[in-house]
Amino acid sequence: MPSTGNGTQASILPDSGHRRLPPGAIFKEAGLTAVVSLALLVPFVGFKIANRGGEQFLETRLPEVLIAAGLIFLGRIFLILVREGSLALPVAGGAVISAIGLFAPIPSAFIQAVAFTAGLVIIVRAAFMVFAARRRSSTGREFGSGFADGYRKALPWLASALIVFAVILPLMPFGERRTIDIAILVLTYIMLGWGLNIVVGLAGLLDLGYVAFYAVGAYSYALLASYFDFSFWVCLPLAGLFAGFFGIILGFPVLRLRGDYLAIVTLGFGEMIRVILLNWVSLTKGPDGVSGIPRPSFFGLEFKRYPAEGTESFHQFFGLDYSSLHRVVFLYYLILILALITNFFTRRIRTLPIGRAWEALREDEIACRSLGINPRNTKLSAFAIGAMFGGFAGAFFATRQGFVSPESFTFLESAIILAIVVLGGMGSQMGVVIAAVVLIGLPEYIRDLQEYRMLAFGAGMVLIMSWRPRGLLSQRDPTISLARAEGKTS
Amino acid sequence: MTDAPPLLRVEHLSMHFGGLVAIDDLSFDAARGEITAIIGPNGAGKTTVFNCLTGFYKPTVGRLTMQRDDTPWQLEQLEDYRIARDAGVARTFQNIRIFPQMSVLENLIVAQHHVLMKASGYSALALIGIGGYRKAEREAVALARYWLERVNLVERADEDAGSLSYGAQRRLEIARAMCMRPALLCLDEPAAGLNPRETGELNDLLGFIRAEHDIGLLLIEHDMGVVMGISDKVVVLDYGRKIADGTPEQVRNDPAVIRAYLGEEDDALEFVGGA
Amino acid sequence: MEYFLQQLINGLTLGAIYGLIAIGYTMVYGIIGMINFAHGEIYMIGAFISLISIMLLESLAGGSVIVALFVVLIVAMILTSLYGWALERIAYRPLRSSPRLAALISAIGMSIALGNYIQLTQGARNKTLQPIVQGNLELMKRDDGFTVVLSYMQIGIIVTTIVLMAAFSLMIAKTSLGRAQRACEQDRTMASLLGVNVDRTISLTFVMGAALAAVAGFLVVLYYGVIDFYIGFLAGIKAFTAAVLGGIGSIPGAMLGGLLIGLIEAFWSGYFSIEYKDVAAFAILVLVLIFRPTGLLGRPEVEKV
User: Which chain A residue's Cα is nearest to B140?
Assistant: First the structure.
């Protein structure tokens, strides 16, 4: 059945010469998948425990199950075809299914979501196959494929372009309030992603409680400001220090644990911090949270229409008309700078001994020990520095919201940040940016996607790991090259 | 023979795992400028000796004294990374442990971690551009290049270490260990899995290190060609006990060794001798 | 004294449930050396399937309650096992030769996805069930009217757990599946060379763990009568703590650890503070991992160099 465009595919996939599965086998495999998914879907998609007016009853939605199983059947066939080396038909099919899911007026949101994702999965899978094939086919000792080389060359340009774009964004015609708000949110996650990337991507320590440090940072500022009237600029470094200090305290006992133990203990710590924030009412006001957190000032100039007696506010000082946008734009530049500092720091530290030791530790801890690297201190430094950036971001979060409560620091938040790091490509700075834009920015614009966001994150983590275990953009640049290092000296 | 203590002195080393005695009261010395080989049948406890020496196991009993720059170090009391860093014991592994995702050059730079950490003010000063890190890094690269040339990997310095062939990875691991500027280099079956040409190159490399670098070499080996050809001294283990030590000549003719290694057969002698 | 006894009973009941979940962690860990991060979600799914089946049977009405509950239990075990099987197929098997971190992340992704799947399809609100098994035994009465109560449900939970544990231990010890499992734990490559179907054995391990988690979910629905999509998270961490406390890889250890965690939680909330009862479990987890990573009944792990 997959006859269209075979000639061109051969050139895309040079190794697709192996035996084709007969259609019968394809149908059998897909049928099996469909039957299993039918059994899996029936209890939850087929029935819903619904509540109405205090009454609880079962709602049945059996047609949805059948349609979803049918879609899975179709999707599975396409995936098998991709695996077998044909591309055109599955990609076209995937696109059609996706489009139906996105645009067709189907009454069930669930079916829409299934169709949309199924189509997307097929297309992404096909794309991976192409890249993988290219890489295999590229000969010689050059770094990987043409794509990878191209990406490597384009990266500095792309990065510069993105930074320029980020700087002029508020001045652009579409730089309205809503866009800037979303951009602030995305940048916050980019910063958190870069911070966590130090821990997960570079040092290879799976930290599932990263949000705890975000919380420590946020509460440090909130509490210092409300109890002692400290200004944001004093609190920002303090918040980072506190979070880093917490990183050391939490890290010290657990960092000698193996990877998966570490993961679950950090998860436990994250929850512990949240439970403490929730229950230590005398300090944190518990579930009500801390409100009235002061907003940051621009070198002492506040963003208020009517500043307090004897002070001047931002718009008066610069002779502007008052606009509530000023503060938002200021916050935007603030987080942009904070994020860029994080990025700069990470890129620089990679070329320093400690950064190289992190990466070496990720690769092989025993070898590191045999080379005289102290694993405990090395891990601790990664943990603490990652935590510190989480703390900075937390202080920013507190000042932006003007309000913090334990609700903002659930495991879900840690999971989102981890998803950004993982899906973007562990260790890849650009990957974090792309992932944050797609995972945070897009659902903010398209509200309908929000509900399905976590499902997609989770499924995405599973799929990316099985297709590209090192993440989407996991191209790693060596931190030093012999030619360049010696070129400099001569 | 001088009165100065040897580079490494192992005294009454024993290692028990639960009820199993892996090493039983082992004593031997290894000298600077010599290649000392530990041989023995499979399961004789050779790798366990290495793991005790390099701190991966804590010996049950015994003293392991390492001399570096006239300072004695009690290895059995040190953590593994300090044995490498302070006592100057470098090692390679039976199943190679390089950093596969890092470049060949980076592998060699990581080995100079301690020196570079100091030069960079524990990375903190170098982060803000203070101190002599640049110079230290240049020196580190120079040392790396020196060893890359010795092991014939200059051309591949910027490639991922994981993309090297098996034999090249073994050479890289030795180069990496040497970049630590160790006082004692421990090699765990360096010739395993190498073809005859590569084994010959390995012999040359080890001979070169012995001749030019005034350090001690300790190696575990199955391949008799390597052991008998280049060792200055051989220690033979069987069931965790030392049954002989001496020059290759002495060991080769030791009846206890022949019995342990090859049973009671007559042609044993010939096999060991002819290898 | 009476209060103590009551907390003891409550703790043992809770502990039995944690123990059932913990066995899943410990078995999977034993065979593939990894934490099944999505196991808490599997338990939650078991609870939901149980509730849905009960409601379905209620609407059909008729028949004896015991038989109906038995049918529900079987249905829940089968369907939940299928989820366990699919979990292994999708999130673990493709990654068996990948770096550990990759498999861990994939399992976490699975856990997030499953939790959200239930939230999306069933809604985020609490689901409730009117008590089905009612009545209790009054064991002791204090002068001020405080009565020590052992409910039939609690008896049911403890009896079910004991029966399952016994059946289960027998299966591991006597059947060829149990032998295959132990072989795979020792050396997977060697086992496969000797003709053990490794894929099938690993699949069945996940299936068995999921079936026991389904029983735990079923019992929780009947016992507490309230569930939501988020119960898997906390129960998962606590059961994992139980598995580690008992010595990960050891099945009696998991049961012992479960009982201890249940008791600690009951006494902690009975005598200290109910708000911090979840912190207690985490604190124990951290302490055990630091001071005795092999747990109470676990074997020490020798690091291979």
Answer: A485
Closest CA to C57 of C155, C129, C119: C129
Q: What percent of chain C has pLDDT over 70?
A: 97
pLDDT in tens, B79-90: 889 988 988 899
Q: Mind telling me how many Å the CA of B270 is from chain A's nearest CA?
A: 38
> Above pLDDT 70, what percent of chain A?
87
Residues 127-146 of A with CB under 8 A from B: 141, 143
pLDDT of residue A11: 37
Poorest-pLDDT segment among A312-316, A363-367, B240-244: A312-316
Q: Which of C60, C32, C2, C17 is nearest to C214 (CA)?
A: C17
CA distance A419 to chain B (A): 22
How much is the pLDDT for C45? 95
Nearest to C84 by CA among C23, C32, C38, C117: C38
Cα separation of A144 and B98, whole Å? 20
Query: pLDDT (tens digit, 9 = 90+) per residue, A86-117?
Result: 777 878 888 888 887 777 776 677 777 778 77
Contact C48 A265 (CB under 8 A): no
Q: Count the neighbouring beta carbons within 10 Å of the beta carbon of residue B92.
A: 23
Specify the DSSP element, H or E, that contains A390. Answer: helix A375-401
Spell out the domain ranges in chain A. Answer: 23-139, 172-467
C271 contacts: CB under 8 Å, gap ≥ 6: C7
In chain C, domain spans: 2-291
Distance from CA of A63 to the nearest CA of C (A): 14
C2-291 belongs to which CATH class?
A: mainly alpha
Which residues of chain B have a CB within 8 Å of the CB of A364?
97-99
Is this complex's ipTM strictly greater than 0.90?
no
CATH architecture of A172-467: Orthogonal Bundle (1.10)
Tokens of A366: 């025993």
Which stretches of chain C sit within 8 Å of chain B by CB? 302-303, 305
Contacts for B105 with CB less than 8 Å, ≥ 6 apart: A478, A480, A481, A482, A485, B141, B144, B148, B157, B158
Across residues A285-311, what is the average pLDDT? 77
The Cα–Cα gap between A429 and A474 comes to 10
* Residue A481 with chain B: CB contacts under 8 Å: 103, 105, 157-158
Chain C segment 262-291 residues within 8 A of A by beta carbon are 273, 275-276, 278-279, 281-283, 285-286, 289-290
Which backbone phi and psi does B38 adopt, to 5 degrees? -110, 120
More confident residue, A440 or A396: A396
Is the Cα dihedral A183, A186, A190, A192 positive or negative? positive
Q: Which two tokens stand for residue A151?
A: 């990406």
